[in-house]
Structure prediction request, 320 residues.
Amino acid sequence: MSEDDKIRAEALDWAVRAGDPAFEDWEGFTRWLDENPAHAAAYDRIAASVLDGAELIAAATPANDDGGETPVPTGAAPRRSARPWIGGALAASLALVAGLWMWQAGSRDLYRIETAPGQVRTVVLDAQTRVDLAGGTAMAFDRKDPRFARLESGQALFTVRHDEARPFRVTVGKDTLVDVGTVFDVRSQSGDLSVAVSEGAVQFNPEAQDLRIAPGEILQRRGRSGDYTLGKIAPEQVGEWRGGRVTFQDTALSAVAADLARATGVDYRVAPGSAERQVSGSLLVAPLRKNPAALGPLLGVEVRAERPDGADPRWVIGVR
Prediction:
């Protein structure tokens, strides 16, 4: 869900809740309105739609037995300090708006592309926009909107034609990235997130943190509830995996194992108790495909092969 869709959903939820005669959380409602000008604007649009719907229902209401029309409330959903009663027609109108929003939110025509570990695939969205998917990556694209992508897991390099009127958006879970004329790399793995930029800039969560990531910068988060940090990265390292190289700088072995498994197709695992050990190094992928144990002396770690039940070997990385 995009940030705009999220705000619309919240506005609709507040409209429905505030219309309940038992509603009491006016302080929370006002706080939400004041958090972001977009909240109040979205709520006003919902309220206006509800009013229009109520008027339509009123016009179509059948007559009473005495020849008169059944009274229909015409007040819109409440704004800020208003606390009106909402009758059946207005509740029906709210349901109509909810249904319309759900239809719009679900109207994307998505298709999914997934790569196997060790595989690299390029998706061309237009003459100047492409997405390179690393191995072990799953993404969704929209047949009707080439300016949208969703990274479900893995890693991808975006080379984007900037269009100020229609910015390119990437969603990663609850996070949203908006291009500012850009080449950038996004990695999402087990709740960890990194966004590295080599050209242009990326606006991170414009409706929340609103953080600009410039060329030579990398935003990182460890775990879904972790803090965001902004550091430096050599621009030439951004997306270098396309050329068969991966670089680690004070990187936890758990992330090293995941990245190498994705890049090489080799089943690298991290040994118990070694996940948080940090290592640094720049490695070529091709030699590791031929000899996975060669990783040991390159990073100063222990690499051993395990063959459970006669299956293909998995390579366990641990601290010496």
Summary: The longest strand covers residues 145-159. Residues 244-318 form a domain with the Phage tail protein beta-alpha-beta fold fold (CATH 3.55.50.30). The CA atoms of residues 179 and 202 lie 5 Å apart. Confidence is low (pLDDT under 50) at residues 63-90, 99-105.
